[in-house]
Amino acid sequence: MNDRPTPLLRAEGLVKTHHGEGAPAHAVRGVDLRVARGEFVAVTGPSGAGKSTLLHLLGGLQRPDEGSYWLDGERTDGYSEARWAVERRKRIGIVFQFFNLVSNLSVADNVELPALLAGLSPKQARAEREELLAELGLAGKERSMPGELSGGEQQRVALARALVNRPPLLLADEPAGSLDSKGTREVMRLLSRFHGRGQTIVLVTHDARLASAADRVISFFDGRIADDAELDGAPSRRAGTSGVLELRD
Ligand SMILES: Nc1ncnc2c1ncn2[C@@H]1O[C@H](COP(=O)(O)OP(=O)(O)OP(=O)(O)O)[C@@H](O)[C@H]1O
To answer: Which stretches make up the ABC transporter domain (predicted)?
Structure first.
């Protein structure tokens, strides 16, 4: 019997080709990947290597042409769009380079919306939002609109929105890509803090400094994993799993 714990993510033979205007882009050419609960994995590599496409496959935002993907032991191959939307709400928080906040909703509403959609009562959603915004140094900004905030603040709101349903998995696609060095350090600090409490994170980044916050770095090249390495000190960094924000799953 295999008594290894079920990985939170398991991908086998993922292939994705984009058919745009020019020649087909073979973005992901056969990826096998396992990510255990509590791991913080950075995916790095040159522009066009296929990193974002891989992240989109892991978040169910795009479908593979070939291969299979299991989320927490459950095969996702047959999931409809609607099913993926439900699964994402419960299990996957996603942050993007350009935050993707709803510009005509306040900070509070941006963060509460996914909690309400997931079925929390307005009171519970408000409590979760208040806790996360305080945690992320945004108390007092609830009534602000996204356009009134700095890039770093908007990314923190996006992080709060991604984590409001306490998903076991956080996917981050160049989360500091449009931030200055102060904003980058802030994102790094926050990702490390959530990881220290047991949050599983898959981070796509060009930024070697940001990748150094992870405990495992995957180098992606030409649609394939070229290298997959644990960083020194990873086990100790991965040790803490308790904290104010208990993960609910
Ligand atoms: N929706 C799309 N339609 C057509 N081609 C696409 C699409 N998305 C990505 N591609 C192509 O697929 C390849 C991989 O793109 P992808 O964005 O996944 O790479 P990346 O490593 O994330 O790059 P970057 O670091 O520049 O964001 C590229 O050749 C890109 O042009």
So the answer is: 9-247
